[in-house]
Every structure is written in C-alpha cells, then in structure tokens.
Design a protein that fits this description.
4 helices, about 50% helix, about 140 residues, rod-shaped
Length: about 140
Amino acid sequence: MDIDAWVWWLIGAVGLGIPLVLTAMPEFGMFAVGALASSVIAALGGAVVAQVLVFVVVSVALIAVVRPIAARHRAGQAGQASGIDALKGRQAVVLERVSGSGGRIKLAGEVWSARSLDDEQVFEPGRQVDVVDIDGATAVVM
C-alpha cells in the first residue's frame, strides 16, 4: 500500500491538532497549519524539499505574527479587574451608620453591608468612603 505524500502531511496536521486541543498550546495549531499547507504543495506535485520548506516557512511565519498579537491581547486583559477585585478601591456612599460592627453603603449602584477597617472609626449617612476590601458579602471601608 503506497500512501501519497499529501496524505502523510494531512495525518501530520491532525497529529499536531491533537496536542493543540489537549494542551491549549497555540503553537501546535500553527504547526498543523504549516503541515496543511505542505499537504497542498504535495497534492499539487511539489518536491519534498518544497513541501518541507513550505512547512517551515508557514509555521515560523504564523508563530512570528500570531504570538506577539496574542501576548499583547493577554497583557491588555490582565490589567482589567472584574468581580470583587473591580470593587476594591472604589468610593461608596454610607446609607446607614457604618462602624466596626456593621452598617450599609451604596457601592456601584447596589446596597452592601459594610464595616469600617478600624473598629474605632464611625461613618455617618451621606459620607463618602473608600472600599479597601471585600470580606464575603461585606465591604470593608475607610
């Protein structure tokens, strides 16, 4: 049984796609695309040297172009806080007297239970406070 070179390149592309799915490493996907391009060259009758050259050029070009874009995208999202982390450092308005034992504030349009960071400190209604931490469902303010 004689298998054409383009079939071997397709098998290689699928073989490189499997670790891509299992490890989520995009480099495997770029190598798989290089193997797919080499499969096309082999199907068109290109020599083995041309097939290998296309594999290397396409794979390296994809890595050189896609990785920096992905790194910039990841770096841009790392600075964006979400959930509880996004509430830390924000200002809130005291609705009910806040002391070390409790109280209520309006934070990001929602009413939260709150307590002061310093047990001795008391904040009266209408005062602006800074959220320094979130402890469960309670905002810690100062």
